[in-house]
Specification:
379 residues, alpha/beta, TIM Barrel, nine-stranded mixed sheet, three-stranded antiparallel sheet, 21% strand, binds iron/sulfur cluster
């Protein structure tokens, strides 16, 4: 079982962001921390406690929480859900907000992995995204993280941005490499409705790069990071040996998780492979009043649950293990999808190897098309 804790506070709202996060809510931080602890208490009473293998503190920007509140939050949650010995405990953080005191508080509670939002190396792109930092601030954050003795660092990067050229993307990758992180995530921009960036794209004030350019950027990431010793283990994720993110791998392998906090999602697995997903309210006032009430839930069973295993598993370069699929769903993968998987392999989109099915490089490029074909099992 994994644990996720959501902190919805940011210094400033980025122009592309549609996550549950807000700026200017510092006066709610104390109440929010108390609410998350109350939610953890009610979850522990209802579900029993467990010891998570991995913990992810996301947001928002966890590093804007004052160190004393971070300590109070993690102390309260970890008393009920103490991480296992050797657990991976990640916190997201943003350059320009990270301090040595915050890192000390995080580390004292066991945080041993940091995920830093670098995004781009060019000031004009960072401004266009509405980020608060520059590359110097990334360097300073990395210095603080290393000085604290944290040896597991991820940098998040973005490509396919308005105004971004292939040369700029290469410079971003090289700058990120110069910070020698153990892990790099490269996300293609997805313009989300209702964000200022999407409005600018719709009005023509900004333009996205051509699809071909975006694909070339992705190829550049794979080749450059590969040469630098980072193995791609998922569509967007690259790691030095031994540093793949265990928490995210758990999501893709359908390991159950408990999510605490505003808009946080949980997933509980049943022995037949079906699952129940619950999502907390995204309204701050409701969450503070009664954390954990008004959750929306959605069940996935039968072929929906099996498709979910394929959809998530095919994100990873190791693909979907036939043995794991059968153990989870009680039916061999070949009995449910065998015909379709073979047809996709014949078209060069999938490979069957060592008891697993995985996407080829071409399959990765058109992953959505592959998944649409797998939505229905064999007739
Ligand atoms: S820092 Fe992250 S969570 Fe906060 S507004 Fe920017 S993208 Fe959204």
């Amino acid at each position: 079982m994994e644990l996720y804790i959501h902190l919805p506070f940011c210094r400033k709202k980025c122009r592309y962001c549609d996550f549950a996060s807000w700026a200017g809510m510092e006066d709610r931080m104390e109440d929010y921390v108390a609410a998350v602890i109350r939610e953890a208490q009610s979850r522990a009473a209802a579900l029993g406690t467990f010891r998570p293998e991995t913990v992810f503190i996301g947001g928002g920007t966890p590093s804007v929480l004052p160190p004393s509140l971070l300590d109070r939050l993690l102390d309260g949650v970890f008393r009920l859900f103490p991480p296992k010995h050797g657990a991976e405990i990640t916190s997201e953080a943003n350059p320009g907000t990270l301090t040595a005191d915050w890192l000390s508080a995080a580390q004292a509670q066991g945080v041993n992995r940091l995920s830093l939002g670098m995004q781009a190396a060019q000031p004009e792109l960072l401004r266009m995204l509405g980020r608060i930092h520059d590359t110097a601030a990334v360097g300073e954050s990395v210095r603080l993280i290393r000085a604290q003795g944290i040896r597991n660092l991820n940098l998040d990067l973005m490509f396919g941005l308005p105004g971004q050229t292939e040369a700029m993307w290469q410079e971003t990758l090289q700058t990120a490499l110069s910070f020698t992180p153990e892990h790099i995530s490269c996300y293609g921009l997805i313009p989300e409705d209702g964000t200022p960036l999407k409005d600018d794209l719709d009005s023509g004030a900004l333009t996205l790069p051509e699809e071909e350019t975006e694909r070339a950027m992705y190829d550049k990431a794979i080749s450059l990071l590969g040469q630098a010793g980072y193995a791609q283990y998922e569509i967007s994720n690259f790691a030095k040996p031994g540093f793949a993110c265990r928490h995210n791998i758990g999501y893709w392998q359908r390991v159950p998780y408990l999510g605490l906090g505003l808009a946080a999602a949980s997933m509980f697995l049943r022995p037949d492979g079906s699952c129940l997903r619950e999502t907390n309210t995204a309204l701050m006032a409701d969450y503070l009043r009664e954390p954990g009430t008004g959750r929306e839930s959605e069940a996935a069973s039968g072929t929906d649950a099996m498709f979910e295993s394929l959809m998530l598993g095919l994100r990873m370069t190791e693909g979907v293990s036939e043995a794991a699929f059968e153990a989870m769903h009680g039916q061999p993968l070949s009995a449910v999808y065998g015909k379709k998987l073979s047809q996709l392999a014949d078209r060069g989109l999938l490979i069957h190897e060592h008891g697993s099915w995985r996407l080829t490089r071409r399959g990765m490029d058109i992953q959505n098309t592959v998944l649409v074909e797998l939505m229905e099992p064999d007739a």
